[in-house]
Amino acid sequence: MADTTQRIRIVGAGPSGLCAAINLARAGYGVTVYERHAEVGKRFHGDFQGIENWSTPVDFADALKTLSIAPDFFCRPHWGGELLMQGGYGGTVRSPRPLFYLTRRGSMEGSLDRSLKTQALEAGVTLKFGCHRAIEDGHIIAAGPGKPNVMASGVVFRTDLPDTITTVLDNELAPDGYAYLLVQDGCGTLASVYYRHFKRAAAHLERTTQYFQARRPFPMENPRQFTGYGNFYPVCSAVHRGRLYVGEAAGFQDFLFGFGIRYALMSGYLAARSIIEGCSYDLLWRQVFGRQLATSLINRYLLQRFGSLAHRLIIWRTTRGNPWAFMNRFYNSAAGRLLAQAPAARWLQKKAGGDGRPCAARL
Length: 363
Ligand SMILES: Cc1cc2nc3c(=O)[nH]c(=O)nc-3n(C[C@H](O)[C@H](O)[C@H](O)COP(=O)(O)OP(=O)(O)OC[C@H]3O[C@@H](n4cnc5c(N)ncnc54)[C@H](O)[C@@H]3O)c2cc1C
Description:
By secondary structure, the protein is α/β, with parallel strands linked by helices. Helix content is 34%, strand content 23%. A seven-stranded mixed sheet has the order 6-5-11-12-13-10-14, sandwiched between helices. The protein has a six-stranded mixed sheet with strand order 8-2-1-9-16-15, covered by helices on one side.
């Protein structure tokens, strides 16, 4: 029987913390969320982000119902776009079902963050802004990434370009990562996401801007630059000293491309469920997305090892046939990649381990 007299304290008002808060409050718990900034979404700048829709057969629109989240934010399905490499190789991706949903991040009206805040307040959650709390103060830790091991540099702007979805896999623009140009209704986001050469952030953004401008010049009005980072590290348990870690604070991140929003929402929901139902949180997340997490690590290792050959393969497979089916297999089937498990774990341990968190590489 759930003890709803207990007040749950959550550190961090990102998607993971707010999703946990909404579900707990709806189940009758008193919930306080502490956020160090004066508003939600301060980590972001109105940029577009994609919520991947291929790692599970459950469409994100349906997943939101399970998560008890109303879809009253900018959340637009997309069936594809352009996928390119430098040198012109690439083409158009067209999927029979939505490949991703585009959303906006930040403090503004219509963003995912703002909508979650409103839904949390409506559910009766107490939100305390400008309140930096120690990890020891929380039952649920939703404080986002620790040290950076993937970075993004970008710019948001107004433009007269038509709606555009273009992604470029190229180590010159984005070492081991990808660059993208997203335009919707006259708002643009252009960014480089890179996994090394962090000190050359300005150069990555400049090259990316030049690349897209050379393909087709376009105005960038009211440009606002941003940088951000993500963190991935080996997750063994997401429970430490009785605290439940959710979202990026737990290391729940798509190792391959950094699509962390779905993991953040899902882990927040599962942490709430484990409290409400009195069941093991570790068991829940392993059942629901443990496999995808492990597979995405192997895929990242292989991508970094095989570089442009891997880029070419991804482009070749997604620009013909059924790209959704390919991506779904790519994110789920570790079977064909069993041989890479041990080196992938060693590689990650070397790259991301040793930051003092209670984890060990285990796939
Ligand atoms: C530039 C950029 C682009 C991205 N693009 C995509 C994308 O296209 N698709 C995708 O799926 N993912 C993307 N991601 C990743 C995605 O944004 C994250 O995975 C997701 O926001 C993680 O949610 P979270 O709740 O775990 O953490 P966060 O969103 O980081 O929220 C954590 C919150 O905790 C607060 N906090 C931290 N410490 C404390 C403390 N001690 N006390 C109180 N409050 C605290 C922070 O201020 C923050 O508000 C991107 C990330 C970046 C940086």
